[in-house]
Amino acid sequence: MIDLSREAQLDEALELFHFAFRAIVARPDQMLARRGLSRVHHRILYFLHRNPDISVNGLIEILGISKQALNEPLHVLLAKKLVLASPDIEDRRIHRLSLTHAGRQFEGKLSGDQRARFAGVFAQLGPAKESIWRELMRLLSDAPSIPHSEKRGT
């Protein structure tokens, strides 16, 4: 149950979150729009960069979406030659996804802008407050913690 005496403070927290998110995605959204892409494309590029040669099902699991929801944006990225799909060496029914050189460069620009914003803020906060922020994000997140080393999900 929400403590109604804190409602104004909680609303302020929601507003700050909204405005922070808007600021974090503004420049990448502009870069994406110039290529006819959207945030879903950025999410795909981001996770493919961190999980090269991941299977389609592995990517679906990370993104928490259906195969149908992934289908159209993935086809766009394949058509724009930002993503490469290749059959698995051991099981040709499994398709492995990776970024092309152009895909790595574009993802680097998109996420690089966001990394720079976070780096500047974290430098102002210091390591202890950064740690608190990370814990807050973990607690707010419904996503399971996915090890960075998980590269070949099936």
Report on the architecture of this protein.
With 154 residues, the protein is mainly α. It has one domain (11-140): Winged helix-like DNA-binding domain superfamily/Winged helix DNA-binding domain (Arc Repressor Mutant, subunit A), CATH 1.10.10.10. It has six helices and three strands; from the N terminus they run H-H-E-H-H-E-E-H-H. It has helices spanning 7-34, 39-50, 56-63, 67-79, 101-125, 127-140; strands spanning 54-55, 83-87, 95-99. A three-stranded antiparallel β-sheet has the order 1-3-2. Strand 2 (83-87) and strand 3 form a beta hairpin. The chain is elongated, with a radius of gyration of 18 Å.
Largest sheet: 3 strands, antiparallel
Radius of gyration: 18 Å
CATH homologous superfamily identity: Winged helix-like DNA-binding domain superfamily/Winged helix DNA-binding domain
Number of strands: 3
CATH topology: Arc Repressor Mutant, subunit A
Query: Which overall shape is indicated by the principal axes computed on the Cα atoms?
Result: elongated
What is the annotated CATH architecture?
A: Orthogonal Bundle
**Class per helix and strand makeup:** mainly alpha
Low-confidence parts = 147-154
β content, as a range? 5-15%
As a percent range, the share of helical residues equals: 55-70%
